[in-house]
């Protein structure tokens, strides 16, 4: 046959013939064989032609007649035949290769981990961060992931302070870029930032030649930033940034102090209101009045339990930060991330607020989050949630109101060099 290479050899076997026939025998008779699944039979017509063609003896003719009735199996011996397999047939060599590949990958990973620890011991220590730093970082990253990012300021506000970058020589196209430039100088883990205040001239008409100026400054006290009351503040937008261990306030209660990391870059108006409250010696009227635990709907880490209802109870403690002597004003809606365990957020435009004891995915982008309780203080919030309550109905919603409200006092906390920012996320 034409599809067979010349280098192939052919072995013919029959049930009656036990010895190997010469290869020239098959080559001679090949035009007279019909192939079907490696089995060939001699055509009777071809036999007649062969009889006519050859001047054979009667013995030869008799042999050819017998051969025409005998099925012949053809074995094609080609170099390295590639036999196909079914998809469900296991290939032993494949498993061997996969095993070697997996063992090699595991070995490389172990060697890499060992060398990483050996050559960079600081990386190993950084892996064992405190629970506080991990929680703060997660919340901060989530806040920045929603609502257009966290690099906001207050328009019409000009903050003073010692300049670390002169705006006349430092210009950007947006306030966000100016804010990011200040943040870039606040990446250390060893205390206050080199820049904690940024001031941007963003009103093209009012700024004139000053448009785009970005002044980076340093405050003596970020809780009491130096304001410019006169002049033309309308053309300026300003914001503050808290460094590592900075921007921590305390909500003092009879059950303990809840330490809260503030998010001025995500909720600048909200934080400005909180800083105003800190100037008061007391916070008459500030209190918790609603308390609802996690019930059977959320676990101890705040994760929702499958098939459980989303309340009631709603896993929150709620109160107000409306202090006597402070003018009540509506706080604009700012960054509204997903509510997580520890999130501190306004109800509407404030001053009603709540602290969440659980992760509320169902409340996403609903409430302005301006801070987060440090994880180590969540036990205090859980304790308040277990205080005696009485049922009430608000707008057709069943709630639990404390039988006795819990008074609050706002305190500024001393700066700590602990990486508290890593715990709190300004979603």
From TrEMBL:
InterPro entries registered for this protein in UniProt: Cyclophilin-like_dom_sf, Cyclophilin-type_PPIase_dom
Entry keyword annotation includes Transmembrane: yes
Keyword Nuclease in record: no
Source domain of life: Eukaryota
Keywords from the named record: Membrane, Transmembrane, Transmembrane helix
Domain PPIase cyclophilin-type: 250-402
Coiled-coil region(s): none
Transmembrane residue ranges: 95-115
GO molecular function: peptidyl-prolyl cis-trans isomerase activity
Protein name: PPIase cyclophilin-type domain-containing protein
Organism: Turnera subulata
Species lineage: Eukaryota, Viridiplantae, Streptophyta, Embryophyta, Tracheophyta
């Amino acid at each position: 046959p034409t599809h067979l290479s010349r280098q192939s050899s052919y072995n013919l076997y029959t049930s009656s013939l036990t010895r190997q026939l010469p290869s020239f025998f098959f080559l001679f008779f090949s035009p007279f064989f019909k192939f079907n699944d490696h089995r060939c039979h001699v055509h009777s017509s071809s036999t007649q032609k062969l009889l006519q063609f050859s001047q054979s003896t009667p013995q030869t003719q008799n042999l050819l007649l017998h051969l025409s009735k005998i099925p012949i199996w053809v074995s094609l011996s080609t170099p390295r035949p590639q036999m196909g397999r079914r998809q469900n047939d296991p290939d032993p060599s494949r498993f061997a290769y996969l095993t070697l590949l997996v063992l090699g990958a595991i070995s490389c990973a172990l060697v890499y981990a060992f060398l990483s620890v050996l050559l960079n011991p600081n990386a190993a220590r950084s892996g064992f961060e405190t629970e506080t730093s991990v929680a703060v970082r997660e919340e901060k990253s989530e806040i920045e992931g929603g609502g257009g990012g966290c690099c906001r300021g207050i328009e019409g506000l000009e903050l003073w302070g010692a300049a670390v970058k002169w705006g006349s020589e430092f210009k950007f196209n947006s306030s966000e870029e100016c804010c990011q430039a200040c943040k870039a100088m606040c990446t250390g883990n060893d205390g206050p930032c080199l820049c904690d205040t940024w001031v941007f001239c963003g009103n093209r008409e009012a700024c004139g030649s000053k448009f785009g100026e970005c002044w980076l400054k340093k405050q003596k006290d970020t809780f009491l930033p130096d304001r410019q009351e006169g002049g033309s503040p309308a053309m300026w937008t300003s914001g503050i940034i808290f460094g590592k261990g900075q921007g921590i306030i305390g909500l003092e209660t009879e059950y303990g102090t809840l330490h809260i990391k503030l998010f001025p870059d995500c909720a600048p108006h909200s934080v400005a209101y909180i800083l105003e409250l800190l100037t008061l010696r007391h916070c008459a009227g500030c209190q918790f009045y609603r308390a609802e635990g996690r019930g059977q709907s959320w676990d101890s880490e705040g994760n929702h339990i499958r098939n459980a209802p989303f309340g009631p109870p709603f896993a929150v403690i709620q109160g107000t930060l409306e202090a006597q002597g402070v003018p009540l004003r509506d706080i604009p809606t700012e960054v509204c991330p997903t509510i997580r365990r520890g999130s501190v957020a306004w109800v509407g435009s404030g001053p009603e607020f709540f602290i969440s004891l659980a992760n509320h995915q169902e409340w996403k982008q609903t409430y302005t989050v301006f801070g987060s309780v440090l994880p180590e203080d969540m036990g205090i919030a859980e304790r308040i949630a277990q205080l005696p309550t009485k049922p009430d109905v608000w707008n057709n919603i069943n709630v639990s109101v404390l039988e006795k409200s819990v008074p609050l006092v706002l305190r500024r906390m001393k700066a700590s060099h602990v990486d508290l920012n890593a715990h709190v996320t300004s979603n």
